[in-house]
Amino acid sequence: MEQLIAIIEKGQPFFNAIARNKYLKAIRDGFISVIPIIIFSSIFCLVASVPNIWGFYWPDDINNALWKCYNYSMGILAIACAATTAKHFADAQNRDLPKNNQINFISCMCAAIIGFLLLSSDTIATDAASGFNTTYLGSKGLLTAFIAAFVTGIIYKFFIKRNITVKMPEQVPPNISQTFKDIIPFSVCITVFWAFDIVFRAAFGFCFAQGVIQVFQPLFTAADGYIGLAVIYGAMSLFWFVGVHGPSIVEPAIAAALVANMTDNLAAFQAGQHASAVLTQGAQYFVVCMGGTGATLVLVFMFCFLAKSQEMRAVGKAAIVPVCFAVNEPLLFAAPIVLNPVFFVPFVFAPIANIWILKIFIDFLGMNGFMYTLPWTVPGPIGTIMGLGFQPLAFVMLALILVVDFVLYYPFFRAYDAQKCAEEAEISEEELAAKNAEKAAKLNDAFQGKADAKSVAAGAAAEAVKADAPAAVATEATTASDLNGKRVLVLCQGGGTSGLLANALAKAAKERGINLETAAEAYGNHVDMLPDFDLVVLAPQAASYLTDLQKDCERVGNKCVACRGKQYIELSQNGDKSLAFVSEQLSK
After folding, report:
1. pLDDT greater than 60 at residue 416
2. Which of 18, 290, 441, 553 has its CA 20 to 30 A from that of 350?
3. Is the Cβ–Cβ distance between 540 and 498 less than 8 Å?
4. pLDDT at residue 265 above 60?
5. What is the rounded end-to-end Cα distance, in angstroms, of the chain?
6. Counting Cβ atoms within 10 Å, is residue 264 exposed (0-12), middle (13-18) or buried (19+)?
7. SS3 for 561?
8. CA–CA separation, 432 and 279 (whole Å)
9. What pLDDT score was predicted for residue 8?
10. Once rounded to an integer, what is the mean pLDDT over residues 179-197?
11. Going by C-beta distance under 8 Å and a sequence separation of 6 or more, which residues neighbour residue 81?
């Protein structure tokens, strides 16, 4: 096992490089930006559809109103994703360009939207008017949206980098100059998409978005099988185990399938058919990652209530609330689970077992797959039941998954608990030996007629307090003066873990009367926020982005730092240390 982990760990730089790939990051960050659309639209979907399970149907006018809001949000998901992906890709391209010659991401977003529409929509002509065919403007067009965003970003960089733009006199205001600067790359983008669309339709008789679906459909089908699901979610856990944020590598490859399959499941359910897709966003959030990557929900309860080790119980108590809301970094880094050989097998295979159980229930017992999207922070058991539409079989499946996860984790948990108890016993024996030695020394000193050791120790302690008191006060005052009026941004992958440190800093600063502003955000959404902050702190799972973040921070003149796993957990639990850490970074 140790040799296997060593081999995997050697590949960590390669995995980090994949996670930092600007194309994969743009897909991930662009997709994260549109998740509010998915969640918002699903609220109306839940209200409209779930009552049908108990035989209640809304009147037609209310039902149409509910579905209109869903269709006008989820129905244009790909359009929004083309814009957000183009924005994040432009931000990545700008890191390689001079500060005074950057891509205008708003113009880039507009070009990507128009390009996507040219590639994915047919014209609907009637006697009265004409409009867009919306078939591929929603989740089915996500792959085309990504392609449109990348082509747009590449074209813009080509022209901006070489200054092939319309240049205006210095007397012209910057906003007007920027408008003319965008004319050439914008026009080239639209012309390229328009010409490609004409050629493609002439050659194949349908739009490019439909062609993309046909090409990738076999891959989506294979990914929805037992082997495909095992590879996808086994890899996600494996990457996390070696300290690389697995979803950053895996999700971009399956993001389109996750959402499209949810849409297909809902359409099949409404048509009275079997919603058979397994690879869905809901399955990933609430079955595979129940409690976070590695399906650690049952494990944190073991730590909290079954562990004999004092350290493990303490970790369990500190981590149980975050893990219940799918933020399991406190457990991953404090236990630790990451790079801990004891937990390698259950951490990798529990998610696979969970998704296989879901597939068995769908394939052989006729249960419908996930149809409704909920926020990823909804506790796993609740998200499972609601995402599956309160089906009776969902309750049975949930109970089985919890039992299987318990069985998989329990023997390894017991082994680690025994190991920790032995370590704690050894520490206690060493402390006892030290105390005995101290007592012997005191007795020896007393026998030789020297001053009483206890009195000497007490006097020395008092002198130390006197000597250190001014320094302690001075240090606290210095920290307060360093932090007053400062602003700190904490970044992680999804915006959950970053809240741990941001909240700890805010609470500690408030208790000490320090005017410190903190914020938590997902990496990728930070670029436009940077000028408003003095220091940016990367959580451990986002530490591989430090090089890119340094480039972003250099452009605005602020500082950044990345935290290690245990260090981050300690800082989030100790207000004094977190304030001292921030003060130290700002003073460098």
Report:
1. yes
2. 18
3. no
4. yes
5. 41
6. buried
7. strand
8. 56
9. 61
10. 95
11. 30, 31, 33, 34, 142, 145, 146, 149
